[in-house]
Amino acid sequence: MILLGRACQGVGAAAITGVSIAVVSVATPEEKRAQALGLWAGIIAFAFGVGPLIGGVLTASISWRAIFAVDLVLLTTAALLLFRIEKLKLIPRDLKPNTKIDYLGVVLLMVTLGSFVYGLTSGHQAGWTSLQTLALFATAIIFAIAFAINQVRVAEPLVDFSFFRKPRFLASATCMFVATFLLMGLTFTYNIFVQSPGALGLNPLEAGLSLLPFTMAMFALSLTAPRLLAPYSFHWPITIGMLMLAAGFWLMHDTSDHTPYSNLWWKLAILGVGVGLTFSLLPRLGLRVLPDESAGQGSGVINTCLYLGATVGIAACGIVAAEIRHNLLATSIEKLALASSDHNALDRALAHGSPSDVEHALAQFSPEDAEKMKAAMQGVLDNAFAGAMDMMMVLALIGAVLAFFLIRGAVPRAGA
User: Fold this and answer.
1) For residue 256, with 0-12 CB atoms within 10 Å meaning exposed, 13-18 middle and 19 or more buried, which class applies?
2) What is the mean pLDDT of residues 141-153?
């Protein structure tokens, strides 16, 4: 039921977000486009940031299932607003009325991304050299090649590769992947770390509230940056935004269970500024170099990079943290556990289990060894969090290099 529900949500999200940038762009006069896209980016960024807070409130006060009930209210309200907007004819008509959908391209791309992401997320449990993992990655490579061949040969491709010959569009797509990877990687890793009993031990509501400096800085920059910087090249703002992200992740590296919140909130604010600068300017950067009739396809490409970055970011941070936990815990378990114990089961319970699973696993040690295991687990959590921060710092530096070299030259005039 969960898989079926998530699949339906995926179809709905693709229908909405796939064209959202294009609709906002072509429905707005050129002189107000920067402000409109800034509002789009601000609301998207705010939603990503405030989601954990709302989810935390509902989970702590009612149940995690209440999240889906609230979603129904929000979606019903949105649907009623859309009917009103449609009646007022505020939604632009299809700019290419006779376009044919490349259904084969859709299937090939879906299998490519699905195989890659599933291989990435299941590789740790199945084993990176297992037949399942290797088959999934091989499938992703084969279908990616088939997709590229199909796109070159088909008359109306799903993805027009000529877009990527434009350095600004290439920067927009790749850096959007990086920015969303970092945004979702941070919120995922941070929420798990601060809510872990062995770390800060915050409840879901407290964890969401602690992210407010990040959320508010991100929202403020997303709203103001596109409007203030619209007449200028985005070369330095996006490069500086990526460098601020790198600096923020470097500062977050030393976070531990002993870190006071007074030494944490301003680091989160720095990361919020970095995400706000990059996330809000990148869609505008990409659509600047495309004609309006290509805005829908350009929007789809940028949004695909956005959601792929989010998915891969969560998976990659989870993999890095899990591998570090596994390697460090395995050493301690080997030293302390009884010979008759199932070491793999203990490793899974201590690294990924619920508080009750951890308590049950610790009961298999002597009282003295259980205390040693708790101390080892604390160091493992800190190291796993630091490892994820290091990985994202490196990726942010790569994003800064891409922005520095790809976003150059004069600002293209409207319609150029």
Assistant:
1) middle
2) 93
The sign of the CA dihedral 16, 297, 43, 266 is positive
Distance CA 405, CA 416 (A): 21
In the chain, where are the structural domains located? 2-101+158-324+383-406
H or E element, residue 301: helix 295-336
56, 207 Cβ separation under 8 angstroms: yes
Tell me if 399 sits within 8 A of 278, measured CB to CB: yes
312, 181 Cβ separation under 8 angstroms: yes
Contact of 392 with 249, CB cutoff 8 Å: yes
Q: Which of 396, 154, 177, 152 is nearest to 286 (CA)?
A: 177
Asked if 54 contacts 215 with a C-beta cutoff of 8 angstroms, the reply is: no
> 3-state SS string over 166-222?
CHHHHHHHHHHHHHHHHHHHHHHHHHHHHHCCCCCCCCHHHHHHHCHHHHHHHHHHH
CA neighbours closer than 13 Å in the CB half-sphere of residue 340: 2
The length of the chain, given as a count of residues: 416
Q: What is residue 197's predicted lDDT score, i.e. its pLDDT? A: 66
CB 49 within 8 A of CB 273: no
C-alpha to C-alpha distances, 235 to 239, 282, 359, 406, nearest whole angstrom: 6, 11, 52, 8
Question: Taking the model in full, what pTM does it have?
Answer: 0.81
Best CA proximity match to 407, nearest among 196, 165, 239, 208: 239
- Residues 100, 117: Cα–Cα separation, whole Å: 28
3-state SS class at 275: helix
Long-range contacts of 58-67 (CB under 8 A, 24+ apart): 59/204, 59/205, 60/203, 60/204, 60/205, 61/205
Which two three-digit tokens encode residue 239? Answer: 């490069």
Alpha-carbon distance of 362 to 374, in angstroms, equals 8
Q: Look up residue 120 and give its two tokens.
A: 């990435």
381-402 pLDDT, tens digit each: 788 889 999 999 999 999 999 9
What kind of architecture, by CATH, is found in domain 2-101+158-324+383-406?
Answer: Up-down Bundle (1.20)
